[in-house]
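Quick one: structure tokens for this chain, please?
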Amino acid sequence: MFNPLNMPLYNKAAVVVAVGGFIFGLETGSIGPLTVMTSFSETFGNLSSTIHGVVVSSILIGGTASGLFAGNISDIYGRTFTITAGAIVFGIGATLECTAFQLGQFIAGRVIAGIGEGIFFCNLIVYVCEIAPARSRGPLCSVIQLMVQLGITLGYFISYGTARIKDSSLSWRIPLGVQALVSFAFALACFVLPPSPRWLLAKGRKPEAISTLEKLGLASSELEEMLEKPSSEASSIIDMTLLSSIRANFRDMAQVFSPHARKQTALACFMTAFQQFSGIDGVLYYAPLLFQQAGLQSEEASFLASGVTALIMLAVTVPASIYADHWGRRMSVIIGGLILTTCMLVIGSLYASNSVHSDTGAARWVVIVAIYIFAITYSVSFAISVRIYSSEIQPADTRAGATSLAQSANWLANWIVAFTTPILLARSSFAVYYFFGFSTLFAVLVCALVMPETKGKSLEAIDRAFNDGSVAKKWAFLGGKRHGEDGHVHQIGGSELLQSTV
């Protein structure tokens, strides 16, 4: 019989760290419902659509800023210390939100929570990758995404439950209090986690690294390989200060736009940004508002419908993670994107034609079903393929910098969506859906033109495709040059570009 207590320590540590993903999801699932609660309006007044957008999106400002330097902090002070510190900062921010009587304090709390979220969330997968054996790395990293979805689901249903508390601000304070308690408990748990052995090796602490590797329960072959092939960054970060690490980070960022890497960097930033412009966080943050617009007028009904959305996304995340490699990245993005586009354009067209009525007709149910189809499709396509693809297409020497830049593009686009969605909804019943639909269609067209399939290919083969093969020709418009096998840069003419696309 399976006994979780007998699991290797690296499994237990990975599960503990995945709670960080749960906190991220809990916040995402809670903020939309609680900002439309009657008790929230009684405390802070009726929010305009612009202020509503500011309140929801303010956490992303802190997250975007701290996320840029989370890796530097982690390199200097360690993965577990950085995750712990981020969780504490998030807990402080959530506490300020929970105890707020003025809107300024509430927004300040969200910015502080965002700073903490950016610090710990960016290091979760890094830590798991560095403690897990190769055979378990993928499944253990996918636990984090699963916990994100679980957090979103519980965030909705906790809010659904507390919304029944009438005539009391506890209805919106309790979800925030839960976030604070979970984050502080998470910080305490991280205090006892083993440090990353690869970080210890990079800091020149080999005896501690060996002891940690043995405690984690890694096979002797993994241990020997790690000791024989230490991190290439070891010599550069042993004595590095935080300031010098940040300076090095900016130097690395400049490298991502070098001739051999700029195509991959541009594609990764484009894809991660348009992952958000598909409208997923508009749906997650403002689901109660969307369902109320579609005709579910009561607070409880809209919250319940939002929770069902999260449940469906949770249910499809597990099989989607398992079969992602079977579907391929390119087809997943293109087919998934077309379905997402269709859902948004159908909803927008129904509102534009004034076919949706709150108390009668089938159009409102078409809107609700389309939102569910959108959520399912996103979970099995964009949610998985874009994140993997944006990292695996990068050259080895720029992978960390390019991936970090792409994540920043994602957070920036996320902020734009979170801020503008309620404003667009207030001014037009259909504009926001057309924006998401046509943005996704544009992304699909670009990906169909320049996105090569990476399924089953080595990282080296992917790199060659971008610099030597047909992919380089299709990207010639970025600079009109490609790197040939002889190491020289070659100019590409219009006829050669045309031949590469037919």
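Residues 230-238, 477-502 have pLDDT under 50 and may be disordered.
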